[in-house]
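Annual report, structural modelling task.

Input specification for the GDP-alpha-D-glucose complex:
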Amino acid sequence: MPQADLVVVANRLPVDRIEGPDGEPQWRRSPGGLVTALEQVMQNIDGAWVGWGGKPDLDVEPFDLDGTLLVPVPLSRSDLRDYYEGFSNGTIWPLYHDVIATPEFKRSWWDAYVRVNRRFAEAAAEHVAEGGFVWVQDYQLQLVPQMLRELRPDVIIGYFHHIPFPAYALFQQLPWRRQVLEGLLGADVVGFQRVADAGNFQRSIRRLLSYPTKGDTIRVPTADDSHRLVVSKAYPISIDAKQFIELAQDPQVLARAKELREQVGSDKVLLGVDRLDYTKGIRHRLKAYGELLHDGRIKGHDATLVNVASPSRPGVEAYQDLRDEIEMTVARINGDYSTVENTAIRYLHQGFPREEMVALYLAADVMLITALRDGMNLVAKEYVAVRGDNTGVLVLSEFAGAADELGSALLINPHDIDGMKDAIMRALEMPPAEQARRMRTMRRKVLENDVEKWGALFLADVERIRAFRAGEEQAS
Ligand code: GDG
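The model returned the following structure:
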């Protein structure tokens, strides 16, 4: 079995299994954000990617795709129910997003999480070369670093956490809190989106495990009465800004943006783009917008809200309930305030190709990011990247990680509905000079701190650890 110097471990492989023209199954690259982010990093390295193939009970051999070895991890229907929909998305996701929804603590879900994490760790251990680097991605796989370290002490392990890490007072609720911290501490570098997330993680380590922390490092005791140093700090993730800028200059995309604008017809276009998830504050956004219509501050032809809610986690009950609630609210607002000529909210429960997303970003005067809690929020950065003429206004929740870098947006607290209404009005009325000043500052940040830089910063710390370890080995 070939072994790779870099192995990415993520819940999903970066491909979808589809039926080819001859009826035979084929793999097609899936266009997700993580894929684009890591594509850059993996380009020049002999890499492998361990992940689930996207269909239950799919048990196929590793295969090569454009120079990357893809290693499918089989998951049965019950694994998916208990490990993925259960512990990952019914326990960790709500707990780590400040219990916006109530997390459920089920022992059978935890058992499945342990079992499936071990399967991922074993697959990574099998495919990584001597002294190689394994980069574990996200909250579904928090136990993999420690499990992998036990199997392969020779490799360097990184872990990146894409979602928030909660305050100690919330994390404390987790019945398996110590096991999760020990699992993460199997890594050499533990990366977070915000400085505050790394701070929360270190506080939990001090309170629950009593390991000392200093600056970005944690001293983890080892079996031989010595210790290892673990780096834990913020590496804010970003987008492939060049790719978005190129798409925004594509004549077809520009024509489509113009067409969308004309079809919508109103004076101003407001846009929301999220996975349909309770963390994104879609209900709060609709409430604020509905009240602006009710108060008469926005009238008939003044504006339209285009709201893309891409389908997400349909197997989890909280998401089914959320969808019902949002769709009822949209229907009510449209019933009350649309006219024959103008629709108040254009609601789209669909996924679109990236070109269409960029055309929507170009057509929108105001982008509304109203997350109640969000690790980063790449949509905010995508909107900023494509606004090459420095027009447009970003209304951005303080609770999204992106707010740390994009302080020139109109920052809002989405729980404060009156504040959000005022910010929306200010955005709709903002003079072009102020739009340009704010957008220019934000674009500079996004273009400088792109995903390539994110990868480079993380890998630089990995190399630091590698050098430190080599020095220690020589000394002993
Ligand atoms: C998690 C964290 C963190 C959405 N709908 C369509 C579509 N998208 C694309 C967007 C964007 C991505 O999906 C969504 O990324 P976000 O960052 O906004 O949010 P999550 O999915 O919750 O991601 C988040 C992220 O991981 C990365 O670390 O920022 O905080 O929750 O790229 O454009 N893309 C296309 N069609 C759609 O309909 N093509």
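The radius of gyration is 23 Å.
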